[in-house]
Specification:
By secondary structure, the chain is an alpha/beta fold. It has 6 helices and 13 strands.
Length: about 230
């Protein structure tokens, strides 16, 4: 803006199912951000970025399909019209390929060149909190002073393969890498980024008090897109 005041950013959170309210609350703690729930394609208008929350990816995809918002979401991602931050189930929706889908498959948005393993760590009984191996300096520098880059994993997916050169790995859990049967190890990637448009993570920062990942999304994807 001409007076040097930063533009207030409007961030939508897909509110069809899952932990959308927690994302809205956390985003609204970031200065210069106004977050709101989104359920229809009309409510996508005027947004500077969108969050796809955790939840149950098959249910979320089916509701998005039946409500008519799925084609609009695909257009935003595939045409690179809007920065997207996806957590847990949202990551599954953005993947080009998902392993261990339910019978009959599930609607996906796609657009991210990765292979995701649904419920990679087991059922909800095996949910856990773990420290991440963060490989990206900007994430480390964005962290709160007392943050140790821990992630809360609830029936979480993991990226087991990156299939496109424009996808950058941001964090992983090395202790969960497995033998691939060929003398190597499968990957256990829990955070990745595609250019300055898509940020995906396997875990639930909205259930913690650490706004590192939300702040990183705002400062490094959304604000850059509005400059």
């Amino acid at each position: 803006m001409s007076d040097g005041t930063a533009k207030e950013l409007s961030i939508g959170v897909l509110a069809l199912q899952g932990a959308f309210a927690e994302h809205v609350k956390m985003l609204n703690t970031i200065p210069g951000v106004s977050a709101r729930e989104v359920r229809t394609d009309a409510e996508l208008l005027g947004l500077d970025g969108i969050v796809l929350p955790g939840g149950e990816s098959t249910t979320m995809g089916l509701i998005a399909e039946r409500s008519g918002i799925l084609p609009a979401l695909r257009g935003l991602v595939h045409d690179k019209k809007l920065p997207v931050f996806a957590t847990c189930a949202g990551l599954i929706l953005l993947a080009d390929k998902a392993l261990h889908e339910k019978d009959g498959g599930q609607p996906l948005i796609g657009g991210l060149g990765v292979v995701v393993d649904r419920n990679h760590f087991g059922s909800q009984l095996y949910s856990f909190e773990s420290e991440l191996e963060v490989t990206h300096e900007k994430i480390r520098s964005t962290a709160c002073a007392d943050a140790k880059h821990k992630g809360i994993f609830i029936r979480a997916p993991a990226i087991v393969d990156v299939t496109a050169p424009d996808v950058q790995v941001l964090a992983r859990l090395p202790e969960f890498e497995r033998d691939d049967g060929n003398g190597g190890k499968t990957q256990c990637i829990v955070a990745a980024q595609k250019g300055e448009q898509v940020l995906v993570i396997s875990f639930h920062p909205e259930l913690s008090r650490d706004a590192t990942w939300h702040t990183y999304f705002i400062e490094n994807l959304v604000r850059k897109g509005t400059e």
